[in-house]
Amino acid sequence: ASERPTQSGAAPILVASNRGPVSFRTEDDGTLSLRRGGGGLVSGLSAIDDPNAVWVCAALSDADRAAARQAPEGRLDRAGHDVGGQAVRMLDIDPETFARAYNGVANSTLWFVHHLLYDIPTKPAFDAGFRTEWAAYRAYNTAFAEALAAEAAPGAAVLVQDYHLSLVPALLRALRPDLRIGHFSHTPWAPPEYYRLLPDDVAAEVLEGILGADRAAFLTRRWALAFADCCEAVLGASVDRDALTVTLPQPSAGGAPIGRTTRLGVHGLGADGEFLRERAHRPDVDERLAALREAVGDRRTVVRVDRTELSKNIVRGLLAYRHLLRTRPEWLDRVVHIAFAYPSRTDLAEYREYTAEVQRLAAEINAEFATADWQPLILHVDDDFPRSLAAYRLADVALVNPVRDGMNLVAKEVPVVSDRGCALVLSREAGAHEELADDAITVNPFDVVATADALARALAMPPADRADRTERLAAAATALPPQQWFLDQLNAL
Ligand code: F6P
């Protein structure tokens, strides 16, 4: 980005994220149809009743790029699309640059670092190809910074989201020093000894990029402190762990101003209880619930719903279920494991291989235990939101065992939706564990035998205890609903 100040726009509040609130599909007749996205950020922003607010996101597909090109000045609202409330500016970044930034850097590198996913003896190896990807990541972040600078009114508040956009705060500050800039990390943050796997200049640039914000916020205190630890170890920053501030004491590699202080914040995104309770009782959910009931009969259920994501630890979860069936014959024909693992990041070989491994293991478990009228495991690897809600309603036990997770909203959603109360087996490495530990059954996600023990305890939990715990879990899970989560960040900025 150039240092030349950019002319202001009219938006007093802006959100920036890779994935936006809408996406497009090309229909058979060539027309573009619009789909609205879900998630905390979308419902969070709906709390803002300002017609001038703008959401800047990337075009993720050819259909998105076509829609972005048709929109006057790139603003989808003006193209006649009903994007509901806020204006959306979808950036038409060239597909190669986008793929390198999104797949190469964001999802294969930063995501792997923060979730501790590398198979260390061989990976990572930052070769010349990575340098091309890193240049693309910079270009992609620069495109966001320039679009935000052009849209923002003087003194506007800009909320930049996640690891895709870690360079944006510093780039944007250089263009528009008048803005109030926040960054929010939806992931965990790696401890310094792991974070330093990154090339030194990349490690520094990512931290300095985020420190370009006035405020850098996280889902838990643990991740905020890990970020501060990295700033101290990599940049020599001074950290006040009580006040939660990070100050750069000297000119650093990226030339960040001396003495600038960034405040850290913690906002534990909660489930949208009101939306979920209403949505989970619509006819499409009832229909799927009836089908699941038919398959399960009067047996107990262990339910899990995830993206097919390496960090979600689906394979060890299946191994734990198999261990339970092998070692506790009293549960044979009395339990069904419902596992929904919907497709995610399928451009990456690791994710395709992981999906295949999940399917292979699931088939093995069914082959080992199934009888003429009992299917011990129901696995679906396609996406169906109403079916997920139906499974939540039917859950006796929810299994949420990520190796590491920023928050994990499934752990917060199941207790809200469950019909009869449901025991929660929860990894201590999920951000949600900070808030739900008292009433969950905690597991070390790497310990398959301990996870099987936890499933057995959960299955045998007395109904009254289960109902009490579920009530407290649901209250804790909805303590900070998305709208308030969003407003809190804005007010703190
Ligand atoms: O926290 C990371 C995150 O961006 C979540 O907000 C979201 O659920 C998930 O990753 C989806 O990833 P992608 O946009 O790559 O499908």
UniProtKB/TrEMBL annotation:
Q: Which domain of life is it from?
A: Bacteria
Under Gene Ontology molecular function, one entry of this record is: alpha,alpha-trehalose-phosphate synthase (UDP-forming) activity
Entry's Gene Ontology BP terms: trehalose biosynthetic process
* Pfam families (UniProt xref): Glyco_transf_20
Positions of region (Disordered) = 1-22
Tell me its family: Belongs to the glycosyltransferase 20 family.
Q: What is this protein called?
A: Alpha,alpha-trehalose-phosphate synthase
